[in-house]
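Support request, priority: normal
Reporter: lab tech (M.K.)
Component: structure prediction queue

Hi team, I submitted a job for Aromatic ring-hydroxylating dioxygenase subunit alpha from Leeia aquatica yesterday, and the status page still shows it as pending. I've pasted the exact input below so you can check whether something in the sequence is tripping the parser. The sequence length should be 421 residues. Please let me know if I need to resubmit or if it's stuck on your end.
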Amino acid sequence: MSSSPIHLHGKPLNLADMLARRQQGYSLEAPFYTSREVFDADMEHIFGKHWIYVGVEPDVPEPGDYVTVQVGEKPILIVRDDDGEIRAFHNVCRHRGSRLCADERGAVGNLVCPYHQWTYNLQGQLLFAEHMGADFDPSKHRLGTVHLKNVAGLLFICLADEPPADFEELAATMTPYIAPHQVANTKIAKQIDIIEQGNWKLTMENNRECYHCTGNHPELTISLYAYSYGFAPTPETDEGVRRYDAMVAERHAKWESMGLPSAEVDRLDSMISGFRTQRMPLDKTGESQTLNTRRACNRLLANFEDGAIGGLSFWTQPNSWHHFMGDHIVTFMVMPLDQDRTLVRTKWLVHKDAVEGVDYQIDNMTAVWDATNAQDRRLVEESHLGVKSPAYRPGPYSPYTETLVEKFSNWYINRLSAYIK
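Reply from support: The job had stalled in the queue. We restarted it manually and it finished. Here are the results:
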């Protein structure tokens, strides 16, 4: 694919040249965040050819349950069939293109097009199409399938004809980490969607560092150890960092003995399907990301006897991050809407038998991330306004607190470069 003409403050640019001259350790040039042409390339090559996170198994708990997700101009339908298998289809009727399901979620027996009532079963086979004549062959008009992978309860789709094969490595590595939390045995206690007035890469970059946490996230940092953010080595910080590292090693040994994989795995920019994970200690009681660090749900997940098992963090390229604790799970999906707007979807999961008002109070459970999401939205939106200025120039990342931002940017540049020549 040849790159389309891009303009910055009236001057023409070339996307291939921009990719080639990207300076490692620095933020991206402004058009990567502001250009419609770059956004279109992102949707075609990043979100159109890589595995993207779209939801959780409890989104479709029973046969016939479905959810929809919009990926750029592509409406996607995810449904659990009568055999319990979760499938993904293009949410497009094979007759004249109407969306089959307009709602975000629901339950159906079959998939019936609202326009002319073409009817499909939950495996995508066309069952009924009236007035089509004796020569019409329903078998040639199945729904378009979308690749779907279920990683221990987290659902990923890929819109490419040939998805990246290394996702199997991600799944094999992550399943033992996630499986003890038994995502399939949870329910969605709350979902909140926010729209940030900023480019999706700014949203992801903001997530991949905690340089900004101390000054902006008072609620989140209650449960986080300061030395987990990354510190420049100085005589004042060396001893604190050593003590923190020793504590992490001790906790990891304990959790590993409990059957909870905990060691860091970082492949954010060394794989096409980039990811990272680590179980990290939580401060104070060590139970949960709440305002008092105590569990938000008295009904623990799975068979956990000890609620103080830290927080398992899992990051994926290009669009998600997740936190698994002993009592609940928080999962985040990022979906670009255009070059200036990004959907951030947060879900809180609890044990499927937990009772709201008895086992958990939803306001208590969501307080930390409600506040953090609002704070992050402001930061992203201010960054987006700044990068649109003629005064913006790519700035250097901290080699201590922004290493994961560099890995995100490096992954993004490498992946886009594979398609833009």
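The chain has nine helices and 19 strands. The radius of gyration is 23 Å. Let us know if anything else looks off. Ticket resolved.
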